[in-house]
Structure formats: structure tokens, C-alpha cells
Amino acid sequence: MAHEHKARAPVHVGAFVVTCSDSRDARSDESGRVLRSGLEAAGHTLVGQVVVKDDPEAIREAIAQAQAAGARTILFTGGTGIGRRDCTVETLRALFEKELPGFGELFRMLSYQQIGSPAMMSRATAGTYQGMILFALPGSPQAVRLALDALILPELGHAVRELTR
User: How far apart are CA 96 and CA 37, in angstroms?
Assistant: First the structure.
């Protein structure tokens, strides 16, 4: 059954990348580059990319920009830890129409296999918002690569298809 659903799923999805950071800019945004190159290598269309402060208003503005660009998925990197300024998760959860708890659970399990107990400090999550799927990933390039390769890319088209059912 899952195979049938994937067979009818879009192969190319419009994606938008948002880096939430108080310390990175476009030049030093390695995690954003990992996301961009991974999405494009898998055949998805990058409809935009932005680096914003880890601030709720800036994050909401980035979502509006992604929506205007026609994104079906937004991948956020950064702001998912337990630091005082980390607010990506709270900002997105307030908007989620449906949360996908399995994404965060599986990500932490896979991360634990790679890095051990520090994985428990990740608050990676995903959910739906106005016809889009939003993923909140850590700021580490290795974590971004893990989430993209093991979880997001294998299911992105299928997940977007499910949004239209």
C-alpha cells in the first residue's frame, strides 16, 4: 500500500530553506548549503533560501516569503536546541495544523545511533501548515544531512501528496 501511495506522489517538490541563526549569514551557512544541494540533487526545486535571526517574527516572515514563492515544504535549520534564544520549535508548533511527532522521534533515534546521548537535546520536529510541510532541524550540517537523507527525501513527495488528499 505504501508503495502505491509513493507511486502517485510528486517527484519534484518546491522547497524553501530557512536558516534561523543569530551568528550565521549567507556565507557561513553550511547547513543551508547542505539542504540546498541535497534537495536539488534529489530533483526538487529550490524556490528560495533565507537566513533570519532566531526570532518568532522573522521566522513567520520567512514562512510568508516561502508561501508566496510557491513552496510545498519549508526546511528550517537552527534554533531547535535548548539555548535561551532557540525559538524555532515554539514558533512553528504554534502554527502547526498537524504535528508529525514520528519525524522528531525517528530523527533522535538515528541521531543517538551516531552521536550518543547528546541527541536527547534536539527538539527537531515537523508539521503541516496551510498546505505545506515544515521541518525544523538542528543547525549542525551532519544532523541536517542525516535528517535529509534518512527521513525527508525518502518521504517528501509522499507527504506532499497526502496533504492534497
Answer: 27
Cα–Cα distances (Å) from 135 to 4, 31, 50, in that order, read 24, 14, 15
DSSP-based three-state secondary structure for 127: strand
Distance separating the N- and C-terminal Cα atoms of the chain: 15
* 36-79 pLDDT per residue, tens: 999 999 999 999 999 999 999 999 999 999 999 999 999 999 99
This prediction's pTM: 0.93
Residue 37 has which C-alpha cell?
544541494
Residue 2 inside a domain? The answer is no
Question: In which domain, by residue range, is 16 found?
Answer: 12-163
Closest Cα to residue 77, out of 15, 7, 26, 29?
29
What whole-number distance in Å separates Cα of residue 112 and Cα of residue 114?
A: 5
